[in-house]
Each structure stands twice: as C-alpha cells, then as structure tokens.
Design brief:
heterodimer, A: 115 residues, mainly beta, four-stranded antiparallel beta sheet, 56% strand, B: 114 residues, six-stranded mixed beta sheet, five-stranded antiparallel beta sheet, 59% strand, globular
Chain lengths: 115, 114
C-alpha cells in the first residue's frame, strides 16, 4: 500500500465514450502526476500538478483532460480516444515539485483498453 | 538529452541465484531511482541514490557517478522478486526528461523460477 489509490483498475471503452480516471493520495503531498505506460516503452509523463496548479502539459492530445480540484485528488477525463491510447495509466505523488531528492509514490494504475 | 539504458531487457533465473540488473545513463545526474513494478501494475520505489551504495534486505543498489552506471543486485532470489525493475534518473539542474525532470529506462523484466 503506497498511499496512492487509483480507480478503476481496468477500463474498456469505445472511441465515442467519455470516462474519467480517479486518483487519490493520503500522504499530504503537494504534487501529483499522470504517467502513461505503453508496452515496451518507458514511462511517459503526461501532466504535473503542484499545489493544484498545472505545471506543464507535455504536448498531450486534448482528448486527455486533467483536473485537480484539491491537493489530494486528481482526475483524468477521457473522450473520443483512439485505440493507440490503450495503455496503463499511472498516478503518482511527491511531497513537493520539482522532485529533487525525494521519492515518487505510485498508484496501482488503470489498465485502459480502447476498442 | 539524457539516455537511460537498462540491461538485460529480460532475465529468467532459478530461485536462489544472485541477480544483477544494470543501468547506464549519458549525462550528469543529481539522483537515480530504482523502481519495482509487479504484474498488477503498481510501482514501488526501492531506492533513491546519488552516490555509493544502499542496502535494504536482499536488495543492494550501487552507483558509480564517474562511469555513469548503476546496478541493482538481488541476493538469494525468490519467485516473489519476479517483476519489472525500472531505472530512472534526474539530470543535474533538473534539465532533460519530462517536466518532472526524470528520464526512465524501459525496464528489466525479471522472472525467478522455483
């Protein structure tokens, strides 16, 4: 148990659906992250929030829309996704941003399949 | 641009064997992380180091800053050690990688057979 909880664990959606991924951290951290992990590729950072402000969007397509209503919760809203968006989506948190000499704490991930 | 290379990509060993996983990077770093990802998907941070050596139970991580190389060792390996081991580095000054300043390797898929 890392203190970072993601739901759902698995999600299957059609290309016209709208769904949301949820992440909650119970660690009192100030920064939260969304990462994408595709098969045989390194982890890719999608979004970073620090103190509920988005720090940088790593050129992620607009069909992915993050939301951070408070420092404990992070959402990733999905709409009109493509099959190539099928991947494991991981949420993480850290005490502060930028992460200099501290650890990241990851959730278990949401395995997304887009049909 | 910082490149992170891990070797081997895949490793299958018998229970009890001594395991070594390697990570090489191309630019100066301020910290290196070793992460463990179990088949369920969740990632656990094992070590963060910037010099020398760290040990936790049967796991040992070493780093050689001059050679830009780190190793993760597992002694007396066990089937529950089967996982993907990921190396991630933070470049000096936080430059390179994503906005989090981290560059990740592709991971080493380890299987320990009973």
């Amino acid at each position: 148990e890392t203190g970072v909880t993601q739901t759902p664990r698995h999600l299957v959606m059609g290309m016209t659906n709208k769904k949301s991924l949820k992440c909650e951290q119970h660690l009192g951290h100030n920064a939260m992250y969304w990462y994408k992990q595709s098969a045989k590729k390194p982890l890719e950072l999608m979004f970073v929030y620090s103190l509920e402000e988005r720090v940088e969007n790593n050129s992620v397509p607009s069909r992915f829309s993050p939301e951070c209503p408070n420092s404990s919760h992070l959402f990733l809203h999905l709409h009109t996704l493509q099959p190539e968006d099928s991947a494991l989506y991981l949420c993480a948190s850290s005490q502060d941003f930028p992460v200099l000499r501290e650890k990241l704490f990851f959730g278990s991930g949401t395995q997304l399949s887009v049909l | 641009k910082n490149e992170v290379e891990q070797s081997p990509q895949n490793l299958t060993a018998q229970e009890g064997e001594f395991i070594t996983i390697n990570c090489s990077y191309s630019v100066g770093i301020s910290a290196l992380h070793w992460l463990q990802q179990h088949p369920g998907g969740g990632i656990v941070s094992l070590f963060m180091l910037s010099s020398g050596k760290k040990k936790h139970g049967r796991l040992i991580a070493t780093i050689n800053i001059q050679e830009k190389h780190s190793s993760l060792h597992i002694t007396a390996s066990h089937p529950r050690d089967s996982a993907v081991y990921i190396c991630a580095v933070r470049s000096q000054g936080g430059r390179g990688g994503g906005a989090d300043g981290l560059t990740f390797g592709k991971g080493t898929h380890l299987i320990i057979q009973p």
